[in-house]
From TrEMBL, chains B, D:
Acts as a sulfur carrier required for 2-thiolation of mcm(5)S(2)U at tRNA wobble positions of cytosolic tRNA(Lys), tRNA(Glu) and tRNA(Gln). Serves as sulfur donor in tRNA 2-thiolation reaction by being thiocarboxylated (-COSH) at its C-terminus by MOCS3. The sulfur is then transferred to tRNA to form 2-thiolation of mcm(5)S(2)U. Also acts as a ubiquitin-like protein (UBL) that is covalently conjugated via an isopeptide bond to lysine residues of target proteins. Gene3D superfamilies: 3.10.20.30. It comes from Ilex paraguariensis (yerba mate). There is a cross-link at G99 (Glycyl lysine isopeptide (Gly-Lys) (interchain with K-? in acceptor proteins)). Keywords: Cytoplasm, Isopeptide bond, tRNA processing, Ubl conjugation pathway. InterPro entries: Beta-grasp_dom_sf, Mopterin_synth/thiamin_S_b, Urm1. This is Ubiquitin-related modifier 1 homolog.
Length: 287, 99, 287, 99
């Protein structure tokens, strides 16, 4: 610890020197980061770069939730996992990688599926949540849990050659349900495992998720709340668009909503979205 | 009226995989202004080649589709009643869930 | 090898299945990638994510040039290096990381400074060049070498809270010297080591460099040639702007230029830019 | 004439670290059109607070600065002779070299 009030040890000052030199970040930004805690749900294509950059930058406590195991066909995009970890839990693999780049932060392994039964308990220990999952029911569940607990949510998605990014439930801004009160038809809900994704596309979005989480945690800049970034990798075009405000009619965050912890725990997200929370393995038949 | 329409997030698959469409569309006979409501009907008739239920539901877009008029959520511009002007850019994008 | 003409083994088909599923990429895109070779100059903040994603996606031969060693104050942004590699050469460290995510590609280690004396020989072995360096003379030297050898150049830069990205010398588009015929005054040339950089900013730009290199290598989409991406992390704003065309007056690629290999080798880039090719270590005095 | 000026890549440090400036500037007396040449002189007088040599060289910008008029390189619009119109956005950005 330190007697300078910023909580940065001499070792940290050396490690994070390029952050401390930045006038718009500096000692205060790094000090805020070191005191913050961030939960990343999903250690896959989005979570891989998000976790590495969050660990490297010095977030004080970093939680990882996933129930999946590392497979060879993940490695084209999930750059946090190595061949040596095929067959291991993604959380153990990701945690080991994070520790190897920064042994000075606390890394918490949640080797379980994120469900209504454990979501409140897990999420309540963190300041900021990063949604790096790959399916519709998880996105509603994580959003609602963030609303119930009052946590900002950095939400990213990638499929094919496209990516999307925004910050929900931040500082009076809209939540996921404000934008999407009714779930899409199941036929419109493709997953990377079904439809493919160019590996570096979640790479770009995952890095941007880390950036937004860092901005919120260190209290710098303007987070991407009430705005959405739309990324088209093939044409190298990016749009940042203005979103609607928080909806007073929203079933999660609206004026008369007041979603309770009990209601959240009893809500059936698979039934609501008519989609399973877990992915079934891919049957590929190319030849 | 000249408009640019863009489809993304998979919706382009409904229009021959073409993402950007420069179109000419006029208001309904006897009406002065071109609204989003009329544009949606026009798109369904002229651009959507397959599975129209993946684009529309009733007279609006299906759940999970964001509509942006000049980079602004159509909830802020009046949804179906939004009046379009020459050279406006309208984006239809399906929200993604993958990772 | 394979008898199907696309050069993909069953193991590759499984590993890259999410690429093969993509209609706009598919077997042809992956096959092009596997047959391509990419040189990344610089294994630092930009090179780290670029190298990991290029290795993971299946580029056939990946070259890494750097003369630097891994230091603790690199780790906040250079996520390819781990604490265990502090004091090692960056090339060895990066190569080990790339091999651990993909043992099926060829990784070539160039543990030396990129100089006019070795540049032609090194670069001639690759199809595409990624400039992930951090100083002005290197940027002119790499550009000119690409012009002499006719290689497309994916150029990224990051400093502070901002990043820039474009593709030079591609398909008749402009080169670096077309845009910047005269070097900037040395007082305008800050490096990350002097001025600081938020770690995830080169992360975003490095991923986008990998993407552009992948697009060129696999012959898909529209590379960012004649356009430049300007990224402002603090405000979460991105502009993609239209650049000038190739200049007929350009001293490197212009009509009457015809820069020869001999002229390139004799050109003094440090004198031209009045800046050294190597960085001196940072003296930080915060306390 | 209303213009938006943006400074980036470190040039904002020359104008009190403010990146975006909404300004009102009129053509020179006796001249009808506002050109980039006049705007540069105006910026140097009114916005640049320190080290003007980091922004200009002679009557143009210094080497290493890109000038963009409505997201387009000013080499394509006529450089110093570019005529500006109401609500144009002019970006001055210093090229970065870090990594
Ligand atoms: Zn809401
Ligand atoms: Zn040139």
């Amino acid at each position: 610890d330190s007697s300078f009030g910023h909580g940065l040890s001499p070792n940290m000052i050396y490690r994070y020197s390029r952050h401390l030199l930045l006038p718009s970040f500096g000692v205060q930004g790094q000090s805020n980061l070191v005191k913050s805690s961030i939960l990343v749900v999903g250690a896959g294509g989005l979570g891989a770069p998000a976790l590495l950059y969050l660990a490297a930058c010095g977030v004080g406590r970093l939680g990882i939730v996933d129930h999946d195991i590392v497979e060879l066909n993940n490695l084209h995009r999930q750059i946090i996992h190595t061949e040596a970890y095929i067959g291991w839990s993604k959380v153990e693999s990701a945690a080991a990688a994070c520790r190897s780049v920064n042994s000075t932060i606390q890394i918490v392994e949640h080797k379980e599926a994120f469900r209504t039964s454990n979501a409140l308990e897990i999420m309540s220990k963190y300041d900021i949540v990063v949604d790096a999952t790959d399916n519709v029911p998880s996105r509603y569940m994580i959003n609602d849990c963030c609303v119930v607990l009052g946590k900002p949510l950095v939400s990213g998605a990638a499929l094919g050659m496209e990516g999307q990014l925004t910050v929900y439930n931040y500082n009076g801004g809209p939540c996921y349900r404000c934008l999407f009160p009714v779930p899409p038809p199941t036929t419109a809900c493709q997953r990377c495992s079904d439809s493919g994704v160019l590996g570096v596309v979640p790479g770009v979005i995952g890095c941007l998720q880390a950036l937004e989480a860092i901005k919120i945690a260190s209290v710098i800049g303007e987070p991407l709340s009430g705005r959405m970034l739309l990324f088209d990798a093939l044409s190298a075009r990016i749009r940042i668009v203005k979103l609607r405000e928080r909806s007073s009619q929203c079933k999660a965050c609206g004026e008369n909503a007041a979603l309770t912890q009990q209601q959240f725990q009893n809500f059936d997200y698979e039934k609501f979205t008519q989609s399973p929370l877990s992915t079934s393995p891919l049957k590929l038949n190319l030849l | 009226m000249q408009l640019t329409l863009e489809f993304g997030g998979g919706l382009e698959l409904l229009c021959d995989s073409v993402k950007i469409h420069k179109i000419n569309v006029d208001p309904e006979a006897g009406v002065e202004k071109l609204t989003m409501k009329h544009l949606l009907a026009w798109v369904r008739t002229n651009l959507i080649k397959e599975r129209p239920e993946m684009f529309m539901k009733g007279d609006s877009v299906r759940p999970g589709v964001l509509v942006l008029v000049n980079d602004c959520d159509w909830e802020l511009t009046g949804q179906l009643d939004t009046t379009l002007e020459e050279k406006d850019v309208v984006v239809f994008i399906s929200t993604l869930h993958g990772g």
